[in-house]
Inverse folding.
């Protein structure tokens, strides 16, 4: 019964997910962001470790996108039309490294070893 329900609702779910992702991509492009920019390194240690492993130029570009988006949001503006046409919110720069970090964490958990990169402190 459960598999029948899943088979019946899957097309609807996939359609809604595609529509949501397109709408979110449009909003992200309005501010010049990418999907991976929404990952918060303060809330997820794996994201923080993945960002540490990225090349410095990729991290600097991410930080510039976040600063620009914050500035545009505070000014209640969006990107100019010429920059808006160049935006690629679906382009991923973090997912591959993040999957590698999570695979390492799963492997360490199976071996019973602690993660060596738990260095995030909250006040």
């Amino acid at each position: 019964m459960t598999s029948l329900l899943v088979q019946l609702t899957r097309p609807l779910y996939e359609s809604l997910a595609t529509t949501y992702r397109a709408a979110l991509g449009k909003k992200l492009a309005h501010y010049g962001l990418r999907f991976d920019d929404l990952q918060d390194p303060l809330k997820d240690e794996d994201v923080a470790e993945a960002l540490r492993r990225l090349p410095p130029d990729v991290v600097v570009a991410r930080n510039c996108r976040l600063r620009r988006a914050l500035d545009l949001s505070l000014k209640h503006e969006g990107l100019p039309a010429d920059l808006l046409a160049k935006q690629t919110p679906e382009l991923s720069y973090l997912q591959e490294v993040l999957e590698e970090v999570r695979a390492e964490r799963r492997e360490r958990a199976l071996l019973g070893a602690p993660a060596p990169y738990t260095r995030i402190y909250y006040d």
Summary: The chain has a mean pLDDT of 89.
